[in-house]
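User: Sequence recovery, please. Input:
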């Protein structure tokens, strides 16, 4: 198997001699690689929202909004905490052909 090495840099940034990594360094390096791999996978994920009927049921249960303007104001104030409810339900459910209008939301 290949031996992991790290380049020692001098003050000018030129590469110096290669220094073998000890086991602790290899573990830290692998952990950093895995953390970055996980971060990248999270960034590539698409949001998962509830089906329209369940979303509308959640909105009705909360009872905080009667109009599109109240909903947009609530979103603008940063109050939305549910990751399964889209900030723009008209756009999201509209693309799916499931948006009956704000009166049904």
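Assistant: Recovered sequence (105 residues):
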């Amino acid at each position: 198997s290949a031996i992991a090495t790290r380049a020692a840099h001098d003050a000018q940034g030129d590469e110096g001699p290669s220094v073998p990594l000890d086991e602790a360094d290899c573990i830290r390096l692998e952990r950093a690689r895995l953390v970055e791999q996980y971060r990248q996978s999270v960034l590539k994920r698409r949001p998962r929202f509830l089906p329209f009927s369940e979303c509308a049921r959640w909105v009705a249960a909360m009872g905080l909004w009667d109009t599109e303007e109240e909903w947009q104001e609530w979103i603008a104030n940063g109050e939305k905490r549910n990751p399964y409810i889209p900030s723009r339900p008209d756009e999201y459910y509209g693309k799916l052909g499931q948006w009956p209008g704000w009166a049904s939301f």
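Strands lie at 5-9, 15-20.
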